[in-house]
């Protein structure tokens, strides 16, 4: 299974937002994460559509998490679409394939795990290890 930079950077961005105490500008997110401002703007589009982040315009504006209980699965689904193990993607030989069952089990385990881990869980480890929060 391979996540694209969209999925990885979306997770990284939301974890950063979870460590912020107020709205975060694209510029501050970019500086903290190393993700270009232009790419961040593109990442925010599906995250806003999925109602995972909220945006506010103005001097005190920026982005923030829409709610505290966002799961990794929600972020990856919004940014990647349905994610599947690569070997079975588009496979039409599920009955004859000797390894299909292991890939199906792996898919199920990854999805189940990603539904259990929240952005807040990931951010809490960062805040504990880094005084002042951030990434």
Question: What would you note in describing this structure?
Answer:
With 135 residues, the protein is mostly helical. It has a domain of 90 residues: Winged helix-like DNA-binding domain superfamily/Winged helix DNA-binding domain (Arc Repressor Mutant, subunit A). The protein is built from 6 helices and 2 strands, in the order H-H-H-E-E-H-H-H. Strands 1-2 form a two-stranded antiparallel sheet. The protein is elongated.
Topology:
Layout: H1 5-19, H2 26-33, H3 37-49, E1 53-56, E2 62-65, H4 72-80, H5 100-116, H6 119-129
Antiparallel strand pairs: 1-2
Outline of the structure:
54% of the residues lie in helices and 6% in strands. A two-stranded antiparallel sheet has the order 1-2.
Task: Name the shape in a single word.
Answer: elongated
Poorly predicted runs are 131-135
Largest sheet: 2 strands, antiparallel
CATH topology of the domain at 5-82 and 118-129: Arc Repressor Mutant, subunit A
What percent of residues are in strands? 5-15%
Indicate the multimeric state: single chain
Distance between the termini: 25 Å
CATH architecture group name of the domain at 5-82 and 118-129: Orthogonal Bundle
From N to C, what is the helix and strand string? HHHEEHHH
Question: Number of helix segments?
Answer: 6
Tell me the total number of β-strands: 2
Structural class comes to mainly alpha
Mean pLDDT across every amino acid position: 85
Instruction: Provide the CATH top-level class of the domain at 5-82 and 118-129.
Output: Mainly Alpha
């Amino acid at each position: 299974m391979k996540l694209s930079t969209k999925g990885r950077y979306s997770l990284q961005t939301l974890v950063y937002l979870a460590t912020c105490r107020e709205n975060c500008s694209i510029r501050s997110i970019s500086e903290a994460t190393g993700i270009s401002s232009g790419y961040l703007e593109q990442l925010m589009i599906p995250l806003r559509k999925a109602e995972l982040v909220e945006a506010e315009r103005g001097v005190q504006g920026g982005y923030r998490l829409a709610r505290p209980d966002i799961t990794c699965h929600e972020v990856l689904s919004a940014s990647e679409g349905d994610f599947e193990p690569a070997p079975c993607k588009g496979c039409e030989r599920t009955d004859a394939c000797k390894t299909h069952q292991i890939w199906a089990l792996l898919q199920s385990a990854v999805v189940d795990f990603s539904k259990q881990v929240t952005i807040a869980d990931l951010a809490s480890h960062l805040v504990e290890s880094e005084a002042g929060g951030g990434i």
